[in-house]
Specification:
With about 900 residues, the chain is α/β, with parallel strands linked by helices. Helix content is about 45%, strand content about 15%. It is built from 36 helices and 31 strands. The chain has an 8-stranded mixed beta sheet. Strands 24-25-26-27-28-29-30-31 form an 8-stranded parallel β-barrel, surrounded by 6 helices. Strands 1-2-5-3-4 form a 5-stranded antiparallel beta sheet, sandwiched between helices. Strand 15, helix 17 and strand 16 form a beta-alpha-beta unit. The longest helix is centred in the last third of the chain and has 25 residues. It is elongated and about 105 Å long. It holds the Pfam family PEP-utilizers_C. Its EC number is 2.7.9.1. It comes from Streptomyces lacrimifluminis. Keywords: ATP-binding, Kinase, Magnesium, Metal-binding, Nucleotide-binding, Pyruvate, Transferase. InterPro entries: ATP_grasp_subdomain_1, PEP-util_enz_mobile_dom, PEP_util_AS, PEP_util_C, Phosphohistidine_dom_sf, PPDK_AMP/ATP-bd, Pyruvate_phosphate_dikinase, Pyrv/PenolPyrv_kinase-like_dom.
Amino acid sequence: MSENKDPHVVQPGNSVEGVKFVYDFTEGNKDLKDLLGGKGANLAEMTNLGLPVPPGFTITTEACKTYLDSGEEPAALRDEVSAHLAALETAMGKKLGQADDPLLVSVRSGAKFSMPGMMDTVLNIGLSDKSVQGLAKQAGDERFAWDSYRRLIQMFGKTVLGVEGELFEDALDAAKTAKKVAVDTELEAADLKKLVTKFKKIVKTEAGRDFPQDAREQMDLAIHAVFDSWNTDRAKLYRRQERIPGDLGTAVNICSMVFGNLGPDSGTGVAFTRDPASGHAGVYGDYLQNAQGEDVVAGIRNTVPLAELEQIDKKSYDQLMQIMSTLENHYKDLCDIEFTIERGQLWMLQTRVGKRTAGAAFRIATQLVDQGVIDEAEALQRVTGAQLAQLMFPRFDEATKVAQVGRGIAASPGAAVGKAVFDSYTAVKWSRSGEKVILVRRETNPDDLDGMIAAEGILTSRGGKTSHAAVVARGMGKTCVCGAEELEVDTKRRRMTVPGGHVVEEGDLISIDGSSGKVYLGEVPVVPSPVVEYFEGRMHAGANDADELVEAVHRIMAFADRKRRLRVRANADNAEDAMRARRFGAQGIGLCRTEHMFLGDRRELVERLILADTDAEREESLKALLPLQKQDFVELFSAMDGLPVTVRLLDPPLHEFLPDITELSVRVALAESRKDPHENDLRLLQAVHRLHEQNPMLGLRGVRLGLVIPGLFTMQVRAIAEAVAERKNAKGDPRAEIMIPLVGTVQELEIVRDEAEQVIAEVIEQTGVELKLALGTMIELPRAALTAGQIAEAAEFFSFGTNDLTQTVWGFSRDDVEASFFTAYLEKGIFGVSPFETIDRDGVGALVKLAVEAGRAVRPDLKLGVCGEHGGDPESVHFFHEVGLDYVSCSPFRIPVARLEAGRAASSSAGSDHR
């Protein structure tokens, strides 16, 4: 529930006498989205603002949840609907479905969060064989009445009765073919009467019942269909994709019909107060004369730009411009508006804060700051780390000579390359096989959602910036080009014909540019994003469009850096990565994995260490590794001079440094068959067998290695200490921190710490350089989190290794389970998102919180960070801010995302101190 609580709200699953399940548009407001859904709340808000909204009422989300929980609508709902319907009939001076002058209504879904096209809508409820005659007489337009009736049967048949939509489409196409016309508006009243008869026969055959002639039955069945649409496969898939909770339910909006299909002085459209693709101010949207609203978003007929409405109907255009300004000022954001013009009368059917591309989000946020509409803190809430990540993806190199074969509307930016596929099933199938695909359709509909998610990008030959494909793609951050009219898409033959006659068959490679709308044959090379070039220090703000975007990103990042409390470090193992991380804004290194330094040309030295049979052999191997390790650290500390560098001592099992057991066994067997065995291979094979573990991630690794292999950890500590001393002698400012991995008990840490301190003391004595090296540990085992208070007595810092902590808390190996059952768990709703992608707050997060509190209770100045992959995940960064960590650490490329989300977290919590 929102903060505007209503005393009559019922808890889900209950049906309590006196509970209010229906609200008139005059009763609600925009803050009641939990109860009235986004559409209902905003219709109420526009009504309150005095805007021209057709009268109507909203059935609450609580009614939906009760219906879904019990299988029946709340007992009081029918009477409440009847009372509000009677009031609506009185206001309109006509009754629902009456024969002479029928009141018609729409029944529309409206969840709290926008789910474009995912749930159901039925228009023209109230038409029947009798009332269609009355509508024709009242409107003075027989064609309009029969067109409205065929639309009702088509939508009701598909949505409410479950009839396959293509059956209606095929019948409509056949009627146009018989009449030799291209679009449905050219069908006459007589043609539409025949089509109605055909549609009713389809309903009877496919649904096993007649199309209902009783208007109230139509409305009640449509309400239930909207409730049921909350749990359709496509709605559930969309919610998983957008991380929308599944227990919210949808409201249902009953609105008196206004008609855009009454002739050339009528029409319908969608408008944006700013360009949702670029963020630029101006007149943006689509308009379609003599049409109903679904025609625009479905992309069935190509629209005209909204600006042309000024020539078609200047009075309505001027009124719409004024209303758009009112709404943007009221909502203080880009607004997405649906409207209908009925014979010169403008009606507002919906408004919402509009979905936008990542670039538009950054531009609009800074524009609104400059206009004094919002402040910096609010600007940070208008953008997300996920959007910033999108802006960092590569773009096409326009300098290359690749055949451009078409151009459509740049609906959602990005550079997408893939094989052309012409249906969702193929898109999903090929994508799961590792193929990159572009979904090509005439227009998309909600049934295409699976394929849209699987595809790299979407290309349609119909529709505009407000079509289903465009709106959904923008919401998902998916590249999309719409309305490429010169491309002839034949989905049945699985091919696309481009200008000049060239045919693109399914499986042919194409490229689409969602920033320019260009379509290419073959693969277009990509170049770095200007946003990445900015972070790399190779691009600055200027006058062109890319520079405008860079300037907007620069300003938002400055806001975030001023606001955030969390510092952001990098996971980096060498000087090159460290330098890049520093350019991206890293404030140190939170994880240097030393095992990466032991690979390559040093593998032979590590093998000698593992194969050592005597103390002398082991010491000789360690002595050879020491200077190499020291040089690694000298380079790393130099690159991050003045910033902290947390070095993790060797963590993985030793077998990872040895040859694969199968390959080595084959090599030894072949050598023995030739009677030419290699002594070292035999020793290696024996070592591999000796070190083999059933579950190496829970075996001899981390601190356990340091305790059972004498000299291993002390060699690494010595290398770190000597490198720090060398850098200090060179007037550098190295700030090394030594991290002991996989500690499960304080005794392990105390032993390694004592040895490390002894080595550091020896280096101080040898070099004469004063060294202060912090010693801490990774918290990556449940026991470590549970005994964090004890461990904090021996640790100066904790770094949460959330990858291993997630594995050990859940009891599964990431390498194994992601490929085996994660997909099923996500589909069944057991996971909303992979716990390796976003931190599991209830399980892993609870242990992190417990360890933070216990550790700081013992050592108030305990430094706390996280170095698992969650450190760069936007939602997880907010959690780490909430529990009071000092920093997050992530891969260099994700540093800007973490910086932004740390700023957003601080801004949304109003700077509260969780310490």
